[in-house]
Amino acid sequence: MDLFHNLAIGFATAAQPANLLYAFFGCLLGTLIGVLPGLGPLATIAMLLPITYALQPDAALIMLAGIYYGAQYGGSTTAIVVNLPGESSSVVTTIDGYQMAKQGRAGVALATAAIGSFFAGCVATLALAALAGPLTATALLFGPKEFFALMILGLILASVLSSGPFIEGIGMVVLGMLLSLVGTDLNSGSQRFAFGIPQLFDGLDFVPLAMGIFGFAEIVKNLEQDDKLSLVTQKITNLFPTRDDFRRMVPAMLRGTALGTLLGVLPGGGAVLSSFASYTLEKKLSRHPEQFGKGAIEGVAGPESANNAGAQTSFIPLLTLGVPSNVVMALMVGAMNIHNIHPGPEVMTKNPTLFWGLIASMWVGNLMLLILNLPLVGLWVKLLTIPYRYLFPAIMVFCSIGVYSINSGTFEVYEAAVFCVFGYILIKLQLPAAPLLLGLVLGPAIEENFRRAMVLSRGDATVLLTSPLSASLLAAAAIAVLLIMLPTIRARREEALQE
Amino acid sequence: MKGLAIRNQRAFASGALFLAFAIFFFLVALEYPAGTAAKMGPGYFPRMLAIVLAAIGLVVMLGAIKPGASREALRQWDLKGLAWITGSVVLFGALLFPLGLVGALFVLIMVSSKASPEFTWTGALTNAAVLIVLCLAVFVYGLGLPLPVWPSLFN
Fold first, then answer.
1. Which of A51, A50, A47, A45 is CA-nearest to residue A65?
2. Is the CA virtual torsion A320, A326, A329, A333 positive or negative?
3. How far away is chain A from the Cα of B3, in angstroms, using its nearest Cα?
4. A409 CB within 8 Å of a chain B CB
5. Quick check: B10 and A429 CB within 8 A?
6. Which residues from chain A sit within 8 angstroms of residue B131, using beta carbons?
7. ipTM of predicted complex
8. Is residue A226 less than 8 Å (CB to CB) from chain B?
9. Separation in Å, CA A14 to CA A62, A124, A308, A335, A350
10. In sequence order, what E strands does A211-309 have?
């Protein structure tokens, strides 16, 4: 009955008035910014990070988590109403959601997305609470070689799941790891790749890099394609799905939730993968696959449930193993480090109220989002009428202040400017930035564990393959690489990852 | 002669980018002691990674010139937009201390607004006024972030 005991601790923390307020702020801000096209959860969290500096660690994390899934909810609204995915996990929602909106059923589509997300959020919260204990226990059995193998698996999977050719994704991972070497070498204390610049002795900061690439460079890209938004002008009425709608959406929600809960836990998984997989599954199972792409409610219910479940369970590897499974989780590591919390198996034992409070607040946040989104959806849609020429300077301002506030120094501002140029080059070369960021975040831990494993084995690299646990993790990574090389799977992947 | 033409310019440039980074990191890493596999020095891991990245770069470049590669040209660059946006960020950093937050934000908003094809002076000025008030209210008075608000001359 540990589960209930732990959840009780969590709800006691999450239900404190101050924490409720921060959860609400997080959800509100997340939705607000998630609705705006071109700003995903990553840019949203990065932008709003300075707001959390002044808070207590538990309040800060609760608010950040709220921003994260708030942005997911907001992204669906944009996907359905204007056919623009607010973030990558709502790409599939545009397919049927926008068709429903064109048929005058935008309200129903929005309600389906909100109800599906809420249901998935509840299930995922329970899964998170149930799995955290056993996984943390497993993590404590891990030695350096197992952690090394686990992180390699995560990076391989992240490259498999990023867009573009697999080899280029791996290249970006390795480049990210090289960039992570900048700074002080922990073992010898010597400076590497710092070129005598004192601000680089602590390494390249993750936040300016992410803001340069996902904030500033993204704006340059958006300004190039000056397509006008195709706003659905009709009023959104009739939020309630009919009985027939319910009959069709409930099974899709159940399947989407199950799929998302599982895929979110995978390293490299998370919301994006979950929503794509759910859409494919629904289309396969449907007796009317021809309706997909023309406003099938299953095509909204399944992926929306899946992406929310996946978003939430992707916290599991981070909180239990200390390994971020996707870029947003990588940014959470950055946010936690600012508050001097180092994610990993120790968090649960050292800081139970924070750990369980965060999990409980996810359920609370989902409930708030349901209330925020259904009755207020008209208000959110109005936001979409703000022209981009007013919007992007605001993003510039928030990002710049955010970057400055990391260390109260302008060095980070220049760093972000450099990464704006670099990010623009990546966009032009169609190289995926997500694997780069994961490589950057995981790089130091990979080197550390690799070096430790080699010290323990006296330089014998074969230990990685003779210890059963690390061998099976590496085997899984190798299988993923081999599978992606198979021509049929390759074609499938290209199809699935196409935007 | 067609065999050696760069069919996929995009992939070729990507591979070249990887290779250039690999060479840079490798050359710099040569200055750090490598140590042995059992007792790695600070130079061991960087060299290893740089070699892996160089290999990936070469594979990507070769893939771009092989006869079966798909034809892909490099995309058009919008250097003007990039310059306005990047420039505004650099100016914000440079002006924050001499001009204070109000001045630096004003420059940031005006310069970045120029990147939009729909730029108008009245629009940008209104936007600047609204955003500066909002930022002062939220970041300076609301959150109490340590930001210099006014030009350093007044302090």
1. A45
2. positive
3. 22
4. no
5. yes
6. 393-394, 397
7. 0.91
8. yes
9. 8, 17, 20, 19, 18
10. none
Give the span between the Cα atoms of A269 and A463, in whole angstroms: 28
Nearest Cα residue in chain A from B144: A54
Q: CA A183 to CA A169: how far, in whole Å?
A: 24
Report the C-alpha dihedral over residues A183, A185, A188, A194, rounded to 10 degrees.
Answer: -20
Residues of B in contact with A428 (CB under 8 A): 74-75, 77
Candidates A316, A349, A355, A364; CA nearest to A336 is: A355
What are A20's two structure tokens? 């409720």
The radius of gyration of chain A's CA atoms, rounded to the nearest angstrom, is 22
Sign of CA dihedral A282, A284, A290, A294: positive
Measured over the CA atoms of residue A447, residue A451, residue A456 and residue A461, the dihedral's sign is: positive
Strand pairing category for A191-192 and A183-184: antiparallel
Q: pTM score, two decimals?
A: 0.84
Q: In this complex, how many residue pairs, one in chain A and one in chain B, have their CB atoms less than 8 Å apart?
A: 186
> Among A65-69, A361-365, A398-402, B66-70, which stretch is predicted with the lowest mean pLDDT?
B66-70
CB contact under 8 A, B85 and A220: yes
Cα distances from A78 to residues A97, A234, B5, in angstroms, run: 10, 15, 44
**CA Rg, chain B, in Å?**
24
Q: Which residues of A483-492 are buried (b: 16+ CB within 10 A; e: fewer)?
A: ebeeeeeeee
A178-215 exposure pattern, b = at least 16 Cβ within 10 A, e = fewer? bbbbbbbbebeeebbbbeeeebbeebbbbbbbbbbbbb
Per residue of chain B (155 residues), what is the pLDDT tens digit? 444 577 888 899 999 999 999 999 999 998 888 888 878 888 888 999 999 999 999 999 998 888 777 778 787 788 889 999 999 999 999 998 889 899 999 999 999 999 888 888 999 999 999 999 998 888 888 777 778 888 776 55
| Contact (CB, 8 A) for A383 and A238 | no
Tokens of A6: 């732990």
Beta bridge partners of B8: B72
Q: In this complex, do B53 and A178 lie within 8 Å of one another by their Cβ atoms? A: yes
Any CB–CB contact under 8 A between B34 and chain A? no
Inter-residue contact A441 to A324 (CB < 8 Å) = yes
Nearest-CA residue of chain A relative to B108? A397
Determine whether B69 is exposed, middle or buried from the number of CB atoms within 10 Å of its CB (0-12, 13-18, 19+). middle
The Cα A165–Cα A354 span in angstroms is 40
Token pair of A341 as six digits: 């919390």
| Type of residue at A6 | N
Q: Which residues of B fall within a CB distance of 8 Å from A173?
A: none
CA distance A93 to A491: 22
Single out the residue of A200, A220, A209 nearest to residue A436, CA to CA. Answer: A209
Residues of chain A with C-beta less than 8 angstroms from the C-beta of B74: 428
Task: Name chain B contacts of A417, Cβ cutoff 8 Å.
Answer: 86, 89-90, 93
Cα torsion A165, A171, A177, A180 to 10°: value is -90
